[in-house]
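Researcher: Please predict.
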Amino acid sequence: MADKTLVCKDCGAEFVFTEGEQAFYEEKGFGEPQRCPACRKARKQQRNNQ
């Protein structure tokens, strides 16, 4: 497995999906992230404030 460069579906920024993150996501049964870390954090914060 190698690092992958993905594009955030919210802001369009490129971000690196590291080997370690890929292994963690695979272990948990998750797909690839669709949002960059900053957008994920913003969404999580928005959900927690409602």
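Model: The mean pLDDT is 96.
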